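Lab notes, practical 5.
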Amino acid sequence: MTRMAKANEIVGLDLGTTKIAAIIAEAGDDGEIKIIGVGTSPSEGLRRGVVVNLDKTVNSIVKAVQEAELMAGIEVESVFAGIAGDHIRSINSRGVIAVTRKGNEITEADIARVVDQAQAVSIPMDREIIHVIPQEFIVDEQTGIKDPVGMAGVRLEAEVHIVTGAVTSAQNIYKSIERAGLRVRDLVLQPLAASYAVLDPEEKELGVALLDVGGGTTDIALFFEGSIQHTAVIALGGNNATNDIAIGLRTPTTQAEMLKKRYGCALSSLVDGRETIRVPGVGGREEREVSRQVLSAIIEPRMEEIFSLAQRELKKTEYADLLAAGIVLTGGSARMDGMAQLAEQVFDLPVKIGVPQGVGGLTDSIRDPIHATGVGLVLFGHENRHGDGFSGVSEANLFDNIVQGMRRWWGDFF
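Output from the prediction step:
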Protein backbone atom coordinates (compact mmCIF):
# COMPACT_ATOMS: atom_id res chain seq x y z
CA MET A 1 0.00 0.00 0.00
CA THR A 2 1.47 3.34 -1.02
CA ARG A 3 1.37 6.52 1.04
CA MET A 4 1.90 10.16 0.15
CA ALA A 5 5.48 11.39 0.19
CA LYS A 6 6.58 13.22 3.34
CA ALA A 7 8.46 16.51 3.49
CA ASN A 8 11.77 14.68 4.07
CA GLU A 9 11.40 12.61 0.89
CA ILE A 10 12.96 14.04 -2.26
CA VAL A 11 12.56 12.95 -5.87
CA GLY A 12 15.03 13.58 -8.69
CA LEU A 13 13.85 13.20 -12.29
CA ASP A 14 16.63 12.81 -14.86
CA LEU A 15 15.25 13.52 -18.34
CA GLY A 16 17.81 11.97 -20.65
CA THR A 17 17.87 11.36 -24.40
CA THR A 18 18.11 7.58 -23.99
CA LYS A 19 16.51 7.03 -20.57
CA ILE A 20 14.37 8.75 -17.97
CA ALA A 21 15.25 7.93 -14.38
CA ALA A 22 13.31 8.72 -11.21
CA ILE A 23 15.17 8.45 -7.91
CA ILE A 24 13.37 8.75 -4.56
CA ALA A 25 15.41 9.50 -1.44
CA GLU A 26 14.70 10.01 2.22
CA ALA A 27 16.56 12.54 4.36
CA GLY A 28 17.21 11.29 7.90
CA ASP A 29 17.37 13.44 11.02
CA ASP A 30 21.15 12.95 10.98
CA GLY A 31 21.35 14.48 7.50
CA GLU A 32 22.02 11.15 5.76
CA ILE A 33 20.33 10.71 2.38
CA LYS A 34 18.98 7.21 1.73
CA ILE A 35 17.87 6.04 -1.70
CA ILE A 36 14.56 4.19 -1.28
CA GLY A 37 13.30 3.92 -4.86
CA VAL A 38 14.76 3.85 -8.38
CA GLY A 39 12.82 3.66 -11.63
CA THR A 40 13.98 3.89 -15.24
CA SER A 41 12.20 3.96 -18.57
CA PRO A 42 13.42 4.27 -22.17
CA SER A 43 13.20 7.91 -23.24
CA GLU A 44 11.00 8.06 -26.32
CA GLY A 45 10.05 11.72 -26.57
CA LEU A 46 13.33 13.58 -26.10
CA ARG A 47 16.13 14.37 -28.50
CA ARG A 48 19.36 15.98 -27.30
CA GLY A 49 17.69 16.96 -24.04
CA VAL A 50 14.75 18.70 -25.74
CA VAL A 51 11.13 17.47 -25.80
CA VAL A 52 10.14 16.57 -29.37
CA ASN A 53 7.05 14.47 -28.58
CA LEU A 54 5.03 15.53 -25.54
CA ASP A 55 2.83 12.41 -25.22
CA LYS A 56 5.74 9.98 -25.47
CA THR A 57 7.73 12.01 -22.93
CA VAL A 58 4.77 11.98 -20.51
CA ASN A 59 4.41 8.19 -20.86
CA SER A 60 8.13 7.65 -20.22
CA ILE A 61 8.01 9.88 -17.12
CA VAL A 62 4.96 8.04 -15.78
CA LYS A 63 6.61 4.62 -16.25
CA ALA A 64 9.86 5.66 -14.51
CA VAL A 65 8.06 7.34 -11.61
CA GLN A 66 5.65 4.44 -11.11
CA GLU A 67 8.55 1.97 -10.96
CA ALA A 68 10.30 4.11 -8.34
CA GLU A 69 7.04 4.56 -6.38
CA LEU A 70 6.48 0.81 -6.31
CA MET A 71 9.97 0.22 -4.93
CA ALA A 72 9.71 3.00 -2.34
CA GLY A 73 6.09 2.37 -1.37
CA ILE A 74 5.18 6.05 -1.62
CA GLU A 75 3.24 8.26 -4.03
CA VAL A 76 5.27 11.06 -5.57
CA GLU A 77 3.84 14.60 -5.80
CA SER A 78 6.77 16.81 -6.83
CA VAL A 79 10.22 16.45 -8.41
CA PHE A 80 13.50 18.23 -8.96
CA ALA A 81 13.98 17.89 -12.72
CA GLY A 82 17.10 18.17 -14.86
CA ILE A 83 17.44 20.31 -17.97
CA ALA A 84 20.09 20.08 -20.70
CA GLY A 85 20.33 20.52 -24.45
CA ASP A 86 22.48 22.54 -26.81
CA HIS A 87 20.24 25.58 -26.21
CA ILE A 88 21.94 26.09 -22.82
CA ARG A 89 24.23 29.12 -22.60
CA SER A 90 26.18 30.56 -19.67
CA ILE A 91 27.95 33.83 -18.86
CA ASN A 92 29.79 35.30 -15.90
CA SER A 93 28.60 38.67 -14.68
CA ARG A 94 29.44 41.21 -11.99
CA GLY A 95 27.18 43.44 -9.92
CA VAL A 96 28.21 46.49 -7.87
CA ILE A 97 26.25 48.44 -5.24
CA ALA A 98 27.01 51.08 -2.60
CA VAL A 99 26.35 50.25 1.05
CA THR A 100 24.74 53.43 2.36
CA ARG A 101 23.28 52.60 5.76
CA LYS A 102 24.75 53.87 9.00
CA GLY A 103 27.85 51.95 10.07
CA ASN A 104 28.22 50.54 6.53
CA GLU A 105 27.21 47.08 7.72
CA ILE A 106 26.36 44.69 4.89
CA THR A 107 23.02 42.93 5.32
CA GLU A 108 21.18 40.15 3.56
CA ALA A 109 19.14 42.78 1.72
CA ASP A 110 22.41 44.11 0.25
CA ILE A 111 23.27 40.58 -0.93
CA ALA A 112 19.92 40.31 -2.69
CA ARG A 113 20.42 43.74 -4.28
CA VAL A 114 23.92 43.07 -5.59
CA VAL A 115 22.96 39.66 -7.04
CA ASP A 116 19.90 41.25 -8.60
CA GLN A 117 22.14 43.89 -10.13
CA ALA A 118 24.60 41.24 -11.38
CA GLN A 119 21.89 39.31 -13.20
CA ALA A 120 20.53 42.43 -14.91
CA VAL A 121 22.20 41.51 -18.20
CA SER A 122 20.72 41.72 -21.67
CA ILE A 123 19.06 38.40 -22.51
CA PRO A 124 17.09 37.73 -25.74
CA MET A 125 13.32 37.46 -25.39
CA ASP A 126 13.36 33.75 -26.29
CA ARG A 127 15.74 32.90 -23.43
CA GLU A 128 15.25 32.74 -19.69
CA ILE A 129 17.49 32.50 -16.64
CA ILE A 130 17.74 29.01 -15.15
CA HIS A 131 20.39 29.67 -12.48
CA VAL A 132 22.16 32.66 -10.96
CA ILE A 133 25.03 31.13 -8.98
CA PRO A 134 27.21 33.33 -6.75
CA GLN A 135 30.93 32.73 -7.22
CA GLU A 136 32.45 35.24 -4.80
CA PHE A 137 31.88 38.63 -3.17
CA ILE A 138 34.21 41.60 -3.12
CA VAL A 139 34.05 44.18 -0.32
CA ASP A 140 36.05 47.37 -0.96
CA GLU A 141 38.34 45.49 -3.39
CA GLN A 142 38.90 42.63 -0.90
CA THR A 143 38.29 39.50 -3.03
CA GLY A 144 37.44 35.89 -2.22
CA ILE A 145 34.78 36.60 0.42
CA LYS A 146 32.29 33.80 0.95
CA ASP A 147 29.66 35.51 3.10
CA PRO A 148 29.93 39.29 3.55
CA VAL A 149 26.88 39.64 5.83
CA GLY A 150 27.86 41.59 8.95
CA MET A 151 31.05 42.97 7.44
CA ALA A 152 31.63 46.70 7.08
CA GLY A 153 32.14 48.19 3.63
CA VAL A 154 31.03 50.96 1.33
CA ARG A 155 31.28 49.05 -1.98
CA LEU A 156 29.92 45.53 -2.43
CA GLU A 157 30.50 43.52 -5.60
CA ALA A 158 29.27 40.07 -6.59
CA GLU A 159 30.68 37.72 -9.23
CA VAL A 160 27.91 35.41 -10.47
CA HIS A 161 27.52 32.64 -13.03
CA ILE A 162 24.31 32.95 -15.05
CA VAL A 163 22.87 29.94 -16.91
CA THR A 164 20.16 30.57 -19.50
CA GLY A 165 18.06 28.29 -21.66
CA ALA A 166 15.41 28.50 -24.35
CA VAL A 167 12.06 29.46 -22.85
CA THR A 168 10.14 26.95 -24.97
CA SER A 169 12.43 24.04 -24.00
CA ALA A 170 11.89 24.76 -20.30
CA GLN A 171 8.14 25.19 -20.80
CA ASN A 172 7.87 21.84 -22.59
CA ILE A 173 9.69 20.10 -19.74
CA TYR A 174 7.26 21.70 -17.29
CA LYS A 175 4.27 20.64 -19.40
CA SER A 176 5.50 17.05 -19.70
CA ILE A 177 6.02 16.68 -15.96
CA GLU A 178 2.72 18.39 -15.06
CA ARG A 179 0.79 16.19 -17.52
CA ALA A 180 2.35 13.20 -15.75
CA GLY A 181 0.56 14.44 -12.62
CA LEU A 182 3.62 15.90 -10.89
CA ARG A 183 4.74 19.33 -9.75
CA VAL A 184 8.18 20.75 -10.62
CA ARG A 185 9.96 21.91 -7.47
CA ASP A 186 12.90 23.26 -9.45
CA LEU A 187 14.58 22.92 -12.82
CA VAL A 188 18.30 22.19 -12.49
CA LEU A 189 21.07 22.21 -15.09
CA GLN A 190 22.10 18.57 -15.43
CA PRO A 191 25.91 18.92 -15.19
CA LEU A 192 25.43 21.10 -12.12
CA ALA A 193 23.22 18.40 -10.57
CA ALA A 194 25.73 15.66 -11.46
CA SER A 195 28.49 17.65 -9.73
CA TYR A 196 26.66 17.22 -6.41
CA ALA A 197 26.92 13.44 -6.76
CA VAL A 198 30.44 12.89 -8.16
CA LEU A 199 32.69 15.83 -7.21
CA ASP A 200 34.42 16.38 -3.86
CA PRO A 201 34.83 19.89 -2.38
CA GLU A 202 38.62 19.44 -2.73
CA GLU A 203 38.27 18.80 -6.47
CA LYS A 204 36.13 21.92 -6.90
CA GLU A 205 38.70 23.92 -4.99
CA LEU A 206 41.73 22.67 -6.96
CA GLY A 207 40.04 22.95 -10.35
CA VAL A 208 38.10 20.22 -12.12
CA ALA A 209 36.01 19.77 -15.27
CA LEU A 210 32.98 17.47 -15.19
CA LEU A 211 31.99 15.87 -18.51
CA ASP A 212 28.58 14.19 -18.46
CA VAL A 213 28.61 12.13 -21.67
CA GLY A 214 24.98 11.21 -22.26
CA GLY A 215 23.12 9.75 -25.20
CA GLY A 216 22.32 12.96 -27.05
CA THR A 217 24.55 15.61 -25.48
CA THR A 218 27.79 16.03 -23.56
CA ASP A 219 27.36 18.47 -20.66
CA ILE A 220 30.34 20.36 -19.23
CA ALA A 221 30.77 22.08 -15.86
CA LEU A 222 34.09 23.65 -14.82
CA PHE A 223 34.86 24.40 -11.16
CA PHE A 224 37.73 26.40 -9.68
CA GLU A 225 38.36 27.77 -6.19
CA GLY A 226 35.21 26.12 -4.91
CA SER A 227 32.71 27.64 -7.34
CA ILE A 228 31.36 26.99 -10.81
CA GLN A 229 33.12 29.05 -13.48
CA HIS A 230 31.82 27.75 -16.81
CA THR A 231 29.06 25.53 -18.18
CA ALA A 232 28.43 24.37 -21.74
CA VAL A 233 26.59 21.70 -23.73
CA ILE A 234 27.94 19.88 -26.81
CA ALA A 235 25.29 18.45 -29.14
CA LEU A 236 27.05 15.07 -29.47
CA GLY A 237 26.83 11.97 -27.31
CA GLY A 238 26.76 8.20 -27.22
CA ASN A 239 23.94 7.96 -29.76
CA ASN A 240 26.24 9.39 -32.41
CA ALA A 241 28.62 6.48 -31.85
CA THR A 242 25.66 4.08 -32.09
CA ASN A 243 24.67 5.57 -35.46
CA ASP A 244 28.27 5.29 -36.67
CA ILE A 245 28.28 1.59 -35.73
CA ALA A 246 24.95 0.97 -37.48
CA ILE A 247 26.28 2.49 -40.70
CA GLY A 248 29.82 1.11 -40.48
CA LEU A 249 28.80 -2.47 -39.67
CA ARG A 250 25.51 -2.40 -41.63
CA THR A 251 23.38 -3.49 -38.70
CA PRO A 252 20.09 -2.18 -37.20
CA THR A 253 20.42 0.69 -34.69
CA THR A 254 19.07 -1.44 -31.82
CA GLN A 255 21.74 -4.07 -32.51
CA ALA A 256 24.40 -1.36 -32.86
CA GLU A 257 23.48 -0.06 -29.39
CA MET A 258 23.74 -3.60 -27.99
CA LEU A 259 27.15 -4.13 -29.61
CA LYS A 260 28.39 -0.78 -28.26
CA LYS A 261 27.28 -1.59 -24.70
CA ARG A 262 28.54 -5.17 -24.71
CA TYR A 263 31.75 -4.98 -26.74
CA GLY A 264 32.49 -1.28 -27.27
CA CYS A 265 35.88 0.20 -26.41
CA ALA A 266 36.81 3.85 -26.90
CA LEU A 267 40.50 3.12 -27.45
CA SER A 268 41.21 0.48 -30.12
CA SER A 269 44.80 -0.10 -28.91
CA LEU A 270 43.34 -1.74 -25.78
CA VAL A 271 41.50 -4.40 -27.82
CA ASP A 272 42.96 -7.80 -28.67
CA GLY A 273 43.08 -8.00 -32.47
CA ARG A 274 42.21 -11.71 -32.37
CA GLU A 275 38.89 -11.12 -30.57
CA THR A 276 35.79 -11.34 -32.79
CA ILE A 277 32.10 -10.47 -32.36
CA ARG A 278 28.91 -11.55 -34.16
CA VAL A 279 27.12 -8.71 -36.02
CA PRO A 280 23.41 -9.21 -36.90
CA GLY A 281 22.46 -8.32 -40.49
CA VAL A 282 19.76 -5.92 -41.70
CA GLY A 283 16.41 -7.14 -43.02
CA GLY A 284 16.95 -10.82 -42.27
CA ARG A 285 20.44 -11.01 -43.76
CA GLU A 286 22.84 -13.45 -42.15
CA GLU A 287 24.96 -12.30 -39.24
CA ARG A 288 28.69 -11.80 -39.82
CA GLU A 289 31.79 -12.25 -37.75
CA VAL A 290 33.82 -9.06 -37.31
CA SER A 291 36.96 -8.22 -35.35
CA ARG A 292 36.18 -6.35 -32.12
CA GLN A 293 38.98 -3.99 -33.11
CA VAL A 294 36.91 -2.87 -36.12
CA LEU A 295 34.06 -1.93 -33.75
CA SER A 296 36.49 0.00 -31.58
CA ALA A 297 37.96 1.76 -34.62
CA ILE A 298 34.46 3.09 -35.40
CA ILE A 299 33.80 4.29 -31.84
CA GLU A 300 37.19 5.89 -31.12
CA PRO A 301 37.04 8.79 -33.65
CA ARG A 302 33.59 9.83 -32.44
CA MET A 303 34.59 9.83 -28.77
CA GLU A 304 37.82 11.61 -29.63
CA GLU A 305 35.75 14.26 -31.45
CA ILE A 306 33.54 14.76 -28.37
CA PHE A 307 36.57 15.15 -26.10
CA SER A 308 38.26 17.52 -28.57
CA LEU A 309 35.16 19.72 -28.69
CA ALA A 310 35.03 19.68 -24.89
CA GLN A 311 38.69 20.67 -24.73
CA ARG A 312 38.03 23.54 -27.14
CA GLU A 313 35.17 24.66 -24.88
CA LEU A 314 37.42 24.57 -21.80
CA LYS A 315 40.12 26.54 -23.60
CA LYS A 316 37.64 29.40 -24.06
CA THR A 317 38.03 30.01 -20.32
CA GLU A 318 41.01 31.26 -18.34
CA TYR A 319 40.96 28.09 -16.23
CA ALA A 320 41.94 25.50 -18.87
CA ASP A 321 45.51 25.24 -17.53
CA LEU A 322 44.46 25.31 -13.87
CA LEU A 323 42.56 22.02 -13.62
CA ALA A 324 44.75 20.36 -11.01
CA ALA A 325 42.08 17.75 -10.24
CA GLY A 326 41.75 16.92 -13.93
CA ILE A 327 38.64 15.58 -15.65
CA VAL A 328 35.74 13.57 -14.21
CA LEU A 329 33.66 11.57 -16.71
CA THR A 330 30.12 10.54 -15.94
CA GLY A 331 26.92 9.64 -17.80
CA GLY A 332 26.00 6.39 -19.57
CA SER A 333 28.81 6.56 -22.13
CA ALA A 334 31.42 6.87 -19.37
CA ARG A 335 30.88 3.17 -18.63
CA MET A 336 32.50 2.13 -21.91
CA ASP A 337 35.94 0.54 -21.75
CA GLY A 338 38.79 2.85 -22.66
CA MET A 339 36.93 6.14 -22.07
CA ALA A 340 39.23 7.31 -19.27
CA GLN A 341 42.38 6.32 -21.20
CA LEU A 342 41.24 8.11 -24.37
CA ALA A 343 40.28 11.22 -22.40
CA GLU A 344 43.72 11.26 -20.75
CA GLN A 345 45.34 11.25 -24.19
CA VAL A 346 43.15 14.11 -25.48
CA PHE A 347 43.20 16.37 -22.41
CA ASP A 348 46.66 15.42 -21.12
CA LEU A 349 45.16 15.49 -17.62
CA PRO A 350 44.31 12.86 -15.00
CA VAL A 351 40.86 11.38 -15.67
CA LYS A 352 38.53 9.36 -13.46
CA ILE A 353 35.05 7.89 -13.89
CA GLY A 354 32.58 9.65 -11.59
CA VAL A 355 30.30 7.34 -9.62
CA PRO A 356 27.55 8.77 -7.35
CA GLN A 357 28.66 9.18 -3.73
CA GLY A 358 27.27 10.65 -0.52
CA VAL A 359 24.09 8.59 -0.25
CA GLY A 360 23.01 5.43 1.55
CA GLY A 361 20.12 3.00 1.13
CA LEU A 362 19.84 1.20 -2.22
CA THR A 363 23.36 2.13 -3.25
CA ASP A 364 23.78 -0.95 -5.47
CA SER A 365 21.00 0.39 -7.70
CA ILE A 366 22.64 3.78 -8.29
CA ARG A 367 26.39 3.09 -8.11
CA ASP A 368 26.75 3.74 -11.81
CA PRO A 369 27.82 6.84 -13.81
CA ILE A 370 24.47 6.72 -15.63
CA HIS A 371 22.73 7.76 -12.39
CA ALA A 372 25.02 10.70 -11.55
CA THR A 373 22.43 13.30 -12.61
CA GLY A 374 19.53 11.57 -10.86
CA VAL A 375 21.38 11.22 -7.56
CA GLY A 376 22.72 14.77 -7.94
CA LEU A 377 19.17 16.08 -8.36
CA VAL A 378 18.24 14.40 -5.08
CA LEU A 379 21.24 15.94 -3.31
CA PHE A 380 20.45 19.34 -4.85
CA GLY A 381 16.85 18.89 -3.72
CA HIS A 382 17.97 18.14 -0.17
CA GLU A 383 19.95 21.40 -0.11
CA ASN A 384 17.08 23.39 -1.63
CA ARG A 385 13.94 21.57 -0.52
CA HIS A 386 12.58 24.53 1.48
CA GLY A 387 12.66 26.91 -1.46
CA ASP A 388 12.90 27.14 -5.22
CA GLY A 389 16.67 27.62 -5.36
CA PHE A 390 17.83 29.78 -8.21
CA SER A 391 15.53 28.57 -10.95
CA GLY A 392 14.45 31.45 -13.13
CA VAL A 393 11.92 29.40 -15.09
CA SER A 394 9.86 28.24 -12.13
CA GLU A 395 6.64 30.05 -11.38
CA ALA A 396 8.15 31.55 -8.24
CA ASN A 397 9.93 34.86 -8.64
CA LEU A 398 13.70 34.44 -8.86
CA PHE A 399 14.37 36.45 -5.72
CA ASP A 400 11.41 35.44 -3.55
CA ASN A 401 13.77 33.12 -1.69
CA ILE A 402 17.03 34.88 -2.52
CA VAL A 403 18.50 35.02 0.98
CA GLN A 404 17.71 31.38 1.79
CA GLY A 405 19.03 30.33 -1.59
CA MET A 406 22.25 32.28 -1.14
CA ARG A 407 22.92 30.54 2.16
CA ARG A 408 22.50 27.13 0.58
CA TRP A 409 24.73 27.95 -2.40
CA TRP A 410 27.46 29.28 -0.09
CA GLY A 411 27.33 26.08 1.93
CA ASP A 412 27.81 23.96 -1.17
CA PHE A 413 30.22 25.93 -3.31
CA PHE A 414 32.54 27.25 -0.62
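Observations recorded by the TA: The domain at 89-165 is CATH 3.30.1490.110 (Dna Ligase; domain 1). The two ends are 42 Å apart (CA to CA).
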